[in-house]
Design a protein that fits this description.
By secondary structure, the chain is an all-alpha fold. It is 82% helix and 0% strand. It has one domain.
């Protein structure tokens, strides 16, 4: 894809929608874990699998942030036409992915039970949660290889082939879920094993594509080594982004801990409703990554006016698709929630969460797109700090002050839209300040 010239709106859609579809499909296939255990292994297994998201994200987000750093750095080199640096960045990124995955596996397997205990995980699901997480973390090296490989392909606009690979591995995951849980009468361990096998397949397909790639993106196993100068560039962009995700996850762990105090019915309901929020988030995240990649290439080429246009195209296109998907889920909430549970008590709480949180996801879009544009320009620390102070700070204060006074489910989930509104205002202001510094006099004074 030529990101440096021509019409933007169609190229952004061609980039963002397959990327969003990839992430949504990944979540759909992850949701298959929740749906299968919820329908065939009971509410306790549903709660055990569904409540582990914050812990997984807490441990993996720092390294997922590094994959974003790889995407930005390689995009800039493509914009500059520097094939030597592109190749070195590709090989640095793949080796970094392998090492990152091994680190997450080692940490995850060893500290799973203490973290679950610290989160006040209900006693009737803690053993099931521990079993699921320890198996799940064994697949981390392969998940990291997929994330970094997909980031490499995204840097030149290829979001289609990762989608195809994810679709194949996801179908495999669903088939294996049904085989292990229904055929072999396993519970959370069955869906965890199925997930690991599908991650191995997914990573293997993308590595195969990179080995057969033409030009500077081609992977050569013999050239795998860390280029320290490129690693520093990746870290400069990726570490703040990863820390932001990690702190987000830490705040969500606190929220999950408070959620756990309300009992396993509420935990199961929240786990079911969360799936639809994640689908919408991945839709808006596709436009955030479009802002990162398109801005990165054009900033590397010195085309600052086009960078500005990228931001606003991502905002209005993202608002259409994110808002539309949110409203669709709200309208069909009473129907789609039955995919995960038929328990009336669980459904009641799940519908409360869906109707309150989904209607505000479009606000989340603005802070994500502005943050992505700043990262594409190389300003990763500013949106990370503001997001940590805004979203995470508001959520932690809320959990420690407001929730103890009114310890209800509605009070707890209200913190999500409140934290988005506060942070969106500060991120928007920061974008205009950073844009002025980065672009200088390249834009007219009245440019949007």
């Amino acid at each position: 894809m030529d990101m440096l010239s021509g019409s933007l709106w169609n190229k952004i859609l061609i980039f963002a929608l397959p990327l969003a579809a990839s992430s949504i499909l990944q979540q759909l296939f992850n949701s298959a874990d929740v749906a299968v255990v919820g329908r065939f292994a009971g509410s306790r297994a549903l709660a055990a699998v569904g409540s582990n998201g914050p812990i997984i994200n807490l441990l993996v987000n720092i390294f997922v942030g590094l994959s974003i750093g790889s995407n930005v750095v390689i995009s800039r080199y493509i914009g500059q036409g520097n094939e030597g640096k592109i190749s070195r960045a590709v090989h640095t990124s793949i080796l970094l992915a392998i090492l990152s995955g091994l680190v997450v596996t080692a940490i995850g397997v060893s500290i799973t039970k203490p973290i679950l205990a610290a989160m006040s995980t209900p006693s009737d699901i803690i053993d099931l949660s521990t079993k699921y997480l320890r198996i799940y973390f064994l697949g981390m090296p392969f998940q990291m290889v997929y994330n970094f490989s997909a980031a490499i392909l995204r840097s030149r606009g290829d979001t289609r082939r990762p989608l195809v690979c994810l679709t194949i591995s996801g179908v495999l995951n669903v088939i294996l879920n049904l085989f292990f849980v229904i055929g072999l009468h396993m519970d959370v361990d069955g869906v965890a094993i199925a997930t690991v096998i599908s991650q191995v397949a997914n990573a293997g397909m993308l590595i195969y594509l990179l080995l057969r790639e033409d030009g500077a993106l081609k992977l050569n196993i013999k050239k795998l080594r860390i280029d320290t100068r490129i690693l520093k560039e990746i870290a400069k962009i990726g570490v703040p982004s990863g820390l932001q995700g990690t702190v987000f996850s830490a705040s969500n762990v606190c929220i999950q801990s408070s959620m756990n105090s309300l009992g396993s019915i509420v935990v199961a309901a929240s786990s079911a409703a969360l799936n639809f929020e994640v689908y919408v988030y991945y839709m808006l995240n596709g436009f955030e990554h479009a802002a990162v990649t398109f801005t990165g290439q054009n900033y590397g080429a010195g085309n600052y006016k086009r960078c500005n246009s990228v931001t606003w195209h991502c905002l209005w296109l993202g608002a259409i698709f994110t808002g539309g998907l949110s409203l669709l889920f709200v309208a069909l909430s009473g129907i789609v929630i039955k995919i995960y549970t038929n328990d009336p008590a669980v459904m009641e709480f799940a519908l409360q969460r869906m109707r309150l949180v989904l209607c505000f996801q479009v606000i989340n879009l603005s802070l994500e797109v502005f943050s992505g544009a700043m990262r594409g320009m190389g300003y990763s620390l500013i949106p990370a700090v503001l997001s940590m102070l805004g979203i995470c700070g508001v959520r932690l204060i809320w959990v420690w002050t407001v929730f103890p006074v009114s310890p209800t489910f509605t009070t707890l989930i209200a913190v999500y839209p409140i934290s988005w509104i506060v942070t969106a205002v500060t991120i928007c202001a920061a974008y205009f300040i950073v844009r002025k510094r980065a672009y200088g006099k390249s834009l007219p004074g009245n440019a949007l």
